[in-house]
Amino acid sequence: MDLPVDEWKSYVLQKWSLLPKSIQVTISTAETLNDLFLHSSALLQPEDEMFLKRLSGGYVVGKDPDASLFYREKGNKKFQAKDYMGAAVLYSKGVSHSGPNSTDISLCYANRSAALFHLGQYETCLKDIVRAQMHGYPERLQPKLLLRKAECLVTLGRPQEASQTIIDLESSFAAKPTLSASQFQILQRTLCRVKVKVQEKKNLPEIFPEALTKTFEGMDLREENEQIPGASSSVTLHIDPLKGRFLVATKDILPGELLVKEDAFVSVLNPGEVPLRPHSLESKWEIQATSGDLHCHRCLRHTLAPVPCEGCSYAKYCSQECMQQAWDRYHSVECSLGALLLTLGVFCHVALRSTLLARFEDVGKVIKKLCGEMSNQGICLPESKTPAQILKYGQGGEGEKTDKAVETPIPGCDINGKYERNYNAIFHLLPHTENHSPEYKFLCAVSVSALCRQLEAAGLQAFTTDLKPTKLKAAETPVLGAELNVWGVAMLRHMLQLQCNAQAITTIQQTGSKESLIADTRRVRLATALFPVVSLLNHSCSPNTSVSFIGTIATIRASQLIRSGQEILHCYGPHESRMGVAERRQKLRSQYFFDCDCPPCEREKQRPSAGPGREAFRCHRCRALLQGDDVLSCSGPACTESVGRDLLVSRLQDLQQQVGAAQKHLRNGRLGDWEKSATHLQKSLQVVEVHHGPSSVEMGHELFKLAQVFFNGCAIPEALNTIQKAEKVLLVHYGPWNDEIRELQKMKSCLLDLLPIPVGPKE
């Protein structure tokens, strides 16, 4: 998913293995990214491009009226079975495959509006009705669409608009009676019912629905950092020859304090399992929903009613506004390349989009480092001032002196020492070129070269530094210049950066049966992004922060007390509670190219015989790790506790069996089992506490499940007590806008309404 598809990887690596040794050495020892790119690009042959074209041809990303009909019919079957959610997803797929202003797209929008109406999504239903009409919904079917519109307006408390819609509907009946007698009678009965509702609502005050978009009130930084926009004033930026750039606390920071709130500079939605075009005609189109079907491709908002790009079936958005913004900034270039980008992987896509976004900044000030790499073997350029010259020589506007680059104390900062969240910061993320294997660098360079050739062949104006969003029109047919190779080097740099600097944007996805006592969830990767400020945080296997996401916005909160002068740390993946020191260090070394020397690793590597998971036991008194083989002793400096390993293993196995039993009861979803489920879950909390600690996010999730069980069993005191504990833990890690916290607050409100009113003693 991050890297190209396996077939292309295998093809390029085989090509590498067949290269003469001298060429391999030339590429392996290339001193600059420019050298690496030019040598690799020269080896890309027409037959290589043809192979890549055949691979990308396996992805269905274009418009297809047959697909639109297929998905609409499948959606109709789901609708008839009252699976309105499934119907909405299939109608959305039909919308994506339909051309604009066609009967196909109007019918899909209209049918989706019906599914949304049954799901109670009335505002979104109204939008789909407008879209269906805008794209030429058949006049003979307009009455039922208008009737659905009137019902939505009544339900939303807008009787005046509903009355006008009814007048329009009755006028339509009188002017053009297109319905049969039986259809007309059914419609008339429904119309009478709606009229009654309108009369009931007319004397009530107008009620407007709340905005569907999430607000971030309560998520703002208390005081934003003047040096690092998006960061709290409680931190400052330092640099060290060994550690690089990092953040340090300027004062004592309490658990739960918001330290960073940052929108991604660039993000690309992970496509999920997008299947290649199957050979069987019966399964030509995929009916399973993927992340790309359910989330906006720009802001990542979850949506049941996406608006598709008019030029491809792949890109979908939560609104017309998001679609236009994406088109203006990058999708006008990416639209025709959808299949190729799916083939080349998310990293290549992020690299392309990063350079496309750089067009909207003064790149003459941020590419000087690249120019330095290219100074000895520069790309031949025309004499006139072009964007490529700006990239090569660092020239800005007319009259600007650019004899030498201005030195800044910290890479990525401007001349005033301010670390801006812009392309300058992205460009200065380290690519670690010297650490990547020659094969990996060759794969990245050849993939970027192939992408550049496709951009050139398509005649797309991909890289123009004076471009403004309003200037890019779909009808324009611009021509590429010599600067494409320069930007190819920039894309290669970004692709190499991503292994160490890419941030996975994750979300909580609900799984399991709707009838279950609890909402079972799992964390899934939604997108890959670059965050300039988040990238400043170094790793610890026992971090002092928690990272969470709402759309493309990352928030970092202190998960424990951080003293003034301490470094702000987060976990890159390998955590002390999930794997042993040897495995953690191996993973960090292979992906991030460093040997971790955080306190847990330093402490645990003194015991080289310890295998993965053997250090998972903690002292029940002071929470320090237990050390030893057959007899475990507390590693705490002032604690003398010890216990036999066999006893702890026996207890752990017993608890794991009880956790399994609890999960079985919960999956069965029988209310009569809630007491057993609660008992088992309470014991499973002990396992979670041993592995992750009492204030860990894992503990918060388990407490949330237990609260659900108590709530469904109407055990009011127990539920309220557990809700309070879960809220306390989850607020530290996520803040008030987390979905689980909001659900806990709803449960608490409901339970408080059920509490009996205390009656005083009789006098």
UniProtKB/TrEMBL annotation:
Q: Which gene encodes it?
A: SMYD4
What is this protein identified as?
A: SET and MYND domain containing 4
| Highest taxon listed in the record's lineage | Eukaryota
